[in-house]
Amino acid sequence: MPSVSVSTSTGKTRFQYTISTPSSASAERIEPELPTLLFFHCFAVHNVFHPQFSDQALRKFNLVSFDLRWHGETSSQEEAAEDAIAFINALQLPPCHFIAIDLGSTIALQVAVKKPEQVLSLFIMSHICLDEVPDVLEGRTEMYEIYISDLPNAHVDIAVAFIQYAFSNSMSNLALALRDSCMPIDLENWSPKHREEYRLISYEIFRSRKALPIEALSRISCPVKLIHGGGSIVYSSCYTEAFMKDLQKAGVDVSMEIIPVAPHYLCVDYAEVLNP
């Protein structure tokens, strides 16, 4: 997998990334005459967009993904939106269509606010762009405390809780395979010697996030599509509806769709519904 080194206000980091084009599943560069889709992945499952990169209809375009800090082979300290902009600049990407889910939604949204000319459209699944829901924050706190407790099999307990969070206890063979391929890397990235990094990426970024003010959202100049998984046990549709109302107040062209029964990480098993 290729990588690129970038420098931001928080220091240097190297991002692993994938470029897929119609002629190559792992290309060195995009095909400039084609539209480019830039993907922002979720927490813990950095390869969550495998079904999209395997879709022949989407493979007609440039598909670009990169590992967020402390995911996959990307590591260092955090300023996620600044990281993404630095990555975009390093690869000299043209204005793109952004595809984001879960943790990636906050980063994609920040880029759309900070650099609206870079974003042609925003397709956001299972957003977490508002203040954290108290009950969900309580669960995140409990999971974080268990993980750092050094109790025997703590990581197993967290894995079970995470499956509930991401897949609502219903995992397909593909979801299991993606989880199994990510888990060894996640455990290495978030080992006891990297507890500060784990705190930041698994807990602090969720605990401290705040909804962007209407004034900031008004800078978004592209259409936004929000997708909610009707089977999510984490967030209700009201959470997505509230975000849509904020975007509407800001004058953003926004629409929303609910995929019945779909879990929080819905792009894995509902790709046929989601992919154009």
Automatic annotation (TrEMBL):
Listed InterPro entries: AB_hydrolase_1, AB_hydrolase_fold, AB_hydrolase_sf
Gene3D superfamilies, per the entry: alpha/beta hydrolase (3.40.50.1820)
AB hydrolase-1 domain segment(s): 35-135
Classification via Pfam families: Abhydrolase_1
Hydrolase keyword on record: yes
Entry's Gene Ontology molecular function annotations: hydrolase activity
Keyword RNA-binding attributed: no
Keywords: Hydrolase
Protein name stated in the entry: Alpha/Beta hydrolase protein
Signal peptide: none
Top-rank lineage group of the source organism: Eukaryota
Any one GO CC term of the record: membrane
